[in-house]
Amino acid sequence: METITKSLEDEMIEVVKNTSLSHIAIIMDGNRRWAKQKFLPSAAGHSAGVTSLKRTVTFAQDIGIKVLTVYAFSTENWQRKQEEVDFLMKLLASTIEHELSELYEKNVKMKFIGDLTRFSPELRKVLDNAEQETSNNTGLLLQIAINYGARDELKNAVKQIAKEVKEGSLAPENITEDTITERLYTKNVQDPDLLIRTGGEMRISNYLLWQIAYSELYVTDTFWPDFDKNDLALAINSFAQRDRRFGKK
């Protein structure tokens, strides 16, 4: 049960104002383990995860977070049972269609990052529509990583750079870190300040490897369906205690 109070919400607003926290990335892990603990099918865990995402988006917007990037489906997740993959695709489409009007009203801007070419034309239409409908919103930017893998993202960036060098539009000696950054899915978006992983696993899982070079890491044992405003507040308070030096003294 959530015990978040208005005073705690106000406290988080102040913490966000007084720190450099602007962009939070989340590895939403633990849906299937949550369902297994409750003797439920994995689909129940994924559905409960949608509810968790909805309340996280709302709270993040309320306390002044500018960007929220969540890991919804990785390039490796295609290896799961076809039944589960099919359910996840249907859940993604139905959730976006059901929540789009509310996200629009809340001034949330949506962006999908990853290789979207593998999805069905029907799903891609839903994704494109959501991006177009919210493109002029100026509140929280919600980036949803689907069919996303950081190594795949970097591979594609390198291929694009190689193509430009071959064509003569880019000189090798002019390649900088910005050259790579500008060819990632997250171009024009600042890097995450804080990376949260739920479910207790101590790994990055091929997520935003370039972008999180100097992100603060926070791991909680809480499974994603149980992750609530209190958990997010704990992560933010932890971030506020960090001394971010970026390699400097």
Keywords:
about 250 residues, alpha/beta, 6-stranded parallel beta sheet, 6 strands, about 45% helix, about 15% strand, globular
Description:
With 249 residues, the protein is of the alpha/beta class. The protein has 8 helices and 6 strands, in the order αβααβαβαβααββα. The protein has helices at residues 6-18, 31-37, 42-62, 82-105, 121-133, 150-167, 177-181, 229-240; strands at residues 23-27, 67-74, 109-113, 141-148, 194-197, 216-219. Strand 3, helix 5 and strand 4 form a beta-alpha-beta unit. Helix 1 packs parallel to helix 8 (229-240), helix 2 crosses helix 3 (42-62) and helix 3 (42-62) runs parallel beside helix 4 (82-105). It is globular, with a radius of gyration of 19 Å. The model has no long low-confidence stretch (mean pLDDT 95).
Structural class: alpha/beta
**Radius of gyration based on Cα positions:** 19 Å
Q: If helices are DSSP runs of H or I spanning 4 or more residues, what is the number of helices? A: 8
Spatial arrangement of strands, main beta sheet: 3-4-2-1-5-6
Roughly what fraction of the amino acids lie in strands?
5-15%
* Distance, first to last CA: 42 Å
Q: Tell me, briefly, the overall form.
A: globular
Could you report the average pLDDT, rounded to the nearest whole number? 95
Q: Segments where pLDDT lies below 50 for 5+ residues?
A: none
Number of strands: 6
Order of helices and strands: HEHHEHEHEHHEEH
Q: Percent helix among the residues?
A: 40-55%
Largest sheet: number of strands, sense, barrel closure? 6 strands, parallel
